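sry for the spam today, last one i promise. struct tokens for design, 136 residues
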């Protein structure tokens, strides 16, 4: 498993992995968002983003994904996102955007881990009991 802010090799929940100073960490994040974004010159624009990841780096955090307006991958600084609207629920967020995105990334990580565990258990169960049941 690659390292991210929520993975701890010693399996101590709630403790982030120690990373060297200046290193970037990437958290997978799926979702569709409409954002109001203010660029470095102060110009606002509305964007539709099919999110792929949240990148945590020294002094900044980027929300990365496919930008419908530009037709390619873009990274948006989270501190410059003025409004974020969730495409599936319609929820509109204007404060605490980073906290909300981090929470969503963690929830998705847990759901994916649970899905993988269930699939693994089902495969093991099928491998152990499959041939014996078909013979009887």
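last one done:
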């Amino acid at each position: 498993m690659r390292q991210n802010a929520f993975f701890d090799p010693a399996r101590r929940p709630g403790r982030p992995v120690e990373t060297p100073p200046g290193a970037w960490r990437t958290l997978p994040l799926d979702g569709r968002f409409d954002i109001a974004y203010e660029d470095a010159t102060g110009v606002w624009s509305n964007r539709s983003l099919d999110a792929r990841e949240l990148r945590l780096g020294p002094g900044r955090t980027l929300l990365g994904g496919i930008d419908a307006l530009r037709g390619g991958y873009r990274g948006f600084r989270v501190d410059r996102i003025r409004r974020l609207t969730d495409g599936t629920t319609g929820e509109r967020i204007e404060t605490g955007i980073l906290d909300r995105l981090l929470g969503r990334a963690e929830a998705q990580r847990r759901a994916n881990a649970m899905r993988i565990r269930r699939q693994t258990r089902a495969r093991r169960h099928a491998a152990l009991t499959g041939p014996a049941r078909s013979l009887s």
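The longest strand covers residues 25-38. ok im logging off now
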